[in-house]
Amino acid sequence: MADSREPPPLFNDDDDSHKDDDNDDLFTSAVQSPVSELTTPEEPRRQEGLGDPLTSPSPAASPTPDPPSDSHAGNPTDLFESVGEPPVGGLSSVSLESPTGGEGTQQELPSDPDTTLVDAPCVESANMSSFDAPVEDAGTTGVTGSDDVVGTAESVDQSSPPANSTSDSVPATSEEVSLDDEVDDSALFNATSAPKLQLSQDVPEPPVPASSILPPMGAPLTPPVAPITPTVTPNLTPNVTPAAPAPVTPLPAVRQSPEELEAESGDEFIEIQVSDPQKIGEGMSSYMAYKVTTKTNITYFRKKNWSVTRRFSDFLGLHGKLVEKHLHSGRIIPPAPEKSAIGTTKIKLGSDKTAESGSQDFIEKRRASLERYMNRTGAHPTLRADPDFREFIELDAELPRATQTSALSSAGVLRLFNRVGETVNKMTFKMDESDQAEGQWFEEKTQQIESLDAQLRKLHLAMEGLVAYRRELAVSTASFAKSAAILSSVEEHSALSRALHQLAESTERTHTIHHAQADADFYYLSEITKDYIQLIGAVKDVFHERVKTFQTWQHAQSMLAKKREAKAKAELAGRMDKVQQAQEEVAEWEVKVERSQEEFDRISRAIKKEVDRFDVVRVKDFKDMLVKYLEALMTSQQQIIKVWETFMPEAKAIA
Amino acid sequence: MLEIARLDGMEEVLHSETNGTKSGRSDTVDLNDNSLQVDISDALSEREKVKFTVHTKTTLADYAKPEFSVVRQHEEFIWLHDRFEENEDYAGYIIPPPPPRPDFDASREKLQKLGEGEGSMTKEEFNKMKQELEAEYLATFKKTVAMHEVFLTRLAQHSVFRTDHNFKVFLEYEQDLSVRTKNKKEKVEGLFKSFNKSTDELLLAATQKDVDDYFEKEKGFLLEYHTAIKDTTTKADKMTQAHKSVADSYIKLSTGLSQLGTIEGPRLEKFINKVADTFEKARKVEGRVSSDEDLKLSDTLRYYVRDGSAAKDLLYRRLRCLANYEQANKNLDRARAKNKDVHAAELAQQNACEKFELITNKAKEELVDFKGRRVAAFRKNLIELAELELKHAKAQAQLLKNCLQALQEE
Fold first, then answer.
1. What is the Cα–Cα distance from A275 to A294, expressed in whole angstroms?
2. Stronger pLDDT, B140 or A509, i.e. the higher one
């Protein structure tokens, strides 16, 4: 049993950290509510779900923010879905259960907050004490059951990794999000989220990665997989119509042949432009739409040059989908720009599009970061081949409203990254890897990424300081120019007056130069560095993913040992009926061990490759960034030279 | 001329950079007349006090020796200025504005702030920031010295002022002039006086109709000018300060980058170190831009805020004379009507008239002089400003160009 004990401490660690960080009511209730909800029917499974090392409470918990979402304008849902919730699971469950049912659940939960809270300790104790027994049960039911519920569970499972990480951000974000105004979304969310709630509570089998189970379970699983598509189908209404089989394929396709896709072919290029931000609609229900223009020579795109229109939430939706599909296979997914409640609201409320320079700046900042995001994603050979990505840039129609307007707000993201970082550290430390060299590589990389993270944050702070001071310089130069102009008009000596006037004009021009330079400081230096801070968050996510896979494997091994022991016991006792069953279980876990080991090897390989690519791209990006910035600085200086050259004769003409 | 200014062991730095501070003072120097030459040969900062060594070289017979030095403090300069200002004989002149009080509070405050923030930066960053602050302190110090020197130089070059007895005492008397700082009573009096003066000024400005259009116009000009140039000075200060902040923020950028280079290792280290190095150099250039703008632009403006204010004072004195003169006229009329004390009134009226005419004539000259001085100073400093701006911008452009080239060769 010693073996089987291994996972729980890990989990507990994880769980502790959750508790530490997230005292938030929302989150706590999130963690606990499933318990009160589900106690009877799903008990063993739930416990396994929760107790399992791999599914830190979050997957089970994450759906629960949904209910409060009713009162919270649907935004926690929003957040949760964005990354955590697989369209797959959500939709499949919709097809299986009536959305109304889901809605019902939702209503109940918030009305029962006390229960939820009281139940809290139970979950934990249940996790720890009843770990062994239920797990076995769950294992059996979960895997053998060919009913729909299992199917759903599996599909959820695929997404549970992302859910894990996202749920952390739930408490942090929810407030901010609720400020966020996508009112029109909330209606949609509720409907769709409800089923998900149901679904995730079912999560019975998180430890087993879907992929490892998929093949053997082929038949029973198909139903959940097929419905994946609805996410992609336009007009995602509450009564989701499972349809559009096409996008289904990507998932397996990508999985089966990631390696081939990964191969970079040198002369392929894709260039994506995000332009023409446009405010659509009025008031709080308005949104920004952008023109996304793609130029490429990659053959699987139908054209070489085309444009589509996308709204901001679509970008977030795309990111969410990519994370769901690719994070668990160890890919570094470039993070999408953050949602900014304040900026967005300002734009929405601003009656005139051109009125405020503040929102103009905000829009431009966002446009630029969307463009960088798209190009970063497009530069990744696997991600750009993803059907969702292709649909995003190609489909000349409105995308289905992304139910997951990933409200990854800044605070949430930062917290998430910090937390994930800690967890990764903690966990990697415990990883007793069989492959020493590989383990060491990962440890070193993790270290390097950590120090890189810290340094980039420091550097970013310095850059922000520079931007602020340069802006101040531009502003103070402009006001000096104004004062000098007044002084020149007062000055009675005509030549001196002329010279002062010229001085005013010169400084006015210097102001423009400083201003442009401040923009360069911001867009060429500060923003890129910030992007990298977030990208490093994505790298940490990937590392975290590997740790989870490792744990799955370890867990499977310990389970196998247990099953074998049980079988031996049964044989000793001479209970042949039980031996038969135990034998089946042993075989089953043997398969699982093999699969999870394969999975672990695969993700390790993939991550190595990804991180190598990240290193190469980063170095190149930084070089480009610095060169571009130095060039901008030089241009500024050359302009300043011109300004003073023009001024010089006027100064000399004072007589 | 300013040779050495000792300051808490900063002599070396000072020596090397003494040249920068000579702004705005040679413009009033009449090079043809060397009969009285005054400069501050040394300055010593002792806690709150700054001691200036005033060095004089003269051919004037009044002085006992042809060359001598005395030690003076800021208060004694102010005392000297006040003596000039209250002397009726000089009512028609623009009295050179007194030097501003030595004020190092800003630098001290910044140094303290830096000390508090020491933990948040690396040692290298801290040292660089400290160096910057010390340099700033030094610059302020040198400027203070220069301002005091300009005051004396202007007096020494002035054909009337230089023969003033108090000035002679100031230059020659070897002991402390024992000018106390004003005590409370005197301070209140001074405040009251200046309050009286400004109300009187306001009253006169409002009620006294000037008989001379020229002065009416000059008065309008100076008032407007004073407001405008004061505002411009404030703005120029803000601008140079912001420029300094930009320069200082390059420190963190540069060290941050080179640390990043260390983490990134060989792939990026060399590249990034070149860039960090360039930022470090660019920082120095930007810092020079800021301090040169301060010297050539802000200081010129600042000086003419004070000189303009002195000119305004002259106009006030003249207007006061005019009011007195008109009052004397009225008194004479009344005396004649009553046929009493006519002679005394006549005398008073004559006096007032003479005084007014004298001051008017002198003031006209002085105002013309003021204008000439101002134009010359602006011309010189604006040209120098443009030259320095060009020099720095070119240096920086070249620096960046070299760096880009070096990076391309990588």
1. 11
2. A509
Over range A140-149, report the average pLDDT: 39
CB contact under 8 A, B268 and A619: yes
Taking CA–CA distances from B393, the nearest residue in chain A reads: A637
Q: Which of A322-326, A421-425, B255-259 has the highest mean pLDDT?
A: B255-259
Given a contact cutoff of 8 angstroms between Cβ atoms, the answer to whether A593 and A556 are in contact is: yes
Distance to chain A for B274, nearest Cα, Å: 10
A513-539 pLDDT tens trace: 999 999 999 999 999 999 999 999 999
Q: What is the mean pLDDT of chain B?
A: 83
Residue of A nearest to B249 (CA): A466
Residue B182 pLDDT = 58
Report the predicted TM-score, pTM, of the whole model to 2 decimal places.
0.68
User: Do B228 and A458 lie within an 8 Å CB cutoff?
Assistant: no
Q: How confident is the model at residue A262 (pLDDT cuts 50, 70, 90)?
A: very low
Q: Is the pLDDT of residue A380 over 60?
A: yes
With beta carbons less than 8 A apart as the criterion, state whether B195 and B307 touch: no
Predicted confidence band of residue B102 (pLDDT cuts 50, 70, 90):
confident
How many Å lie between the alpha carbon of A340 and the closest alpha carbon of chain B? 27
Give SS3 for B333: helix
Residues in chain B: 410
Whether B242 sits inside 8 A of A495 (CB atoms) is no
The per-residue pLDDT of chain A, averaged, comes to 66
Q: What is the mean predicted confidence (pLDDT) over A563-572?
A: 88
What is the distance in angstroms between the Cα of B146 and the nearest Cα belonging to chain A?
A: 24
Token match 């028609």: residue? B92
**Do residues B404 and A627 touch, judged by C-beta distance below 8 A?**
yes
Chain A contacts of B275, Cβ < 8 Å?
Answer: 626, 630
Q: Is there a contact between B256 and A465 if contact means CB atoms under 8 Å apart? A: no
Tokens 């000075």, located at residue: B233
Q: Which string of DSSP letters, residue by residue, matches B161-207?
A: GGG-HHHHHHHH--S----PPP-HHHHHHHHHHHHHHHHHHHHHHHH
Residues of A within 8 A of B396 (CB-CB) are 633, 637
- Cα–Cα distances (Å) from A62 to A164, A200, A201, A230, B234, in that order, read 8, 8, 9, 21, 57
Between CA A269 and CA A305 the distance in angstroms is: 12
CB contact (8 A) between residue A641 and residue B397: yes
The letter for the amino acid at A525 is L
Residue reference for tokens 């003072």: B25
By C-alpha distance, which of A206, A208, A227, A214 is closest to A60?
A206
Quote the percentage of chain B above a pLDDT of 70.
86
**Mean pLDDT along residues A361-383:** 89
Most B-contacting residue of A460, A501, A633 (CB-CB within 10 A), to test interface: A633
Q: In this complex, which of B221, B245, B271 lies closest to A469 when CB atoms are compared?
A: B245
Nearest CA of chain A to the CA of B391: how many Å? 8
Phi, psi torsion values for A434, nearest 5 degrees: -75, -35
- How far, in Å, CA of A500 to CA of A489, rounded? 9
Q: Which segment, A415-429, A611-625, B167-181, is predicted with the most confidence on average?
A: A611-625
Distance, in angstroms, between A365 CA and closest chain B CA? 22
CA distance linking residue A63 with residue B99, whole number of Å:
74
Please give the residue of chain B at the shortest CA–CA distance from A449: B263
Give the integer Cα–Cα distance in Å for A497 and A654.
Answer: 9
Q: Which of the two residues, A632 and B63, has the higher pLDDT score?
A: A632
Task: Give start and end residues of each alpha helix (H) in A406-525.
Answer: 410-430, 436-490, 494-520
Comparing A91 with A549, the larger pLDDT belongs to A549
Cβ contact A492:B371 at 8 Å:
yes
Q: How far is CA A264 from the centre of its chain?
A: 25
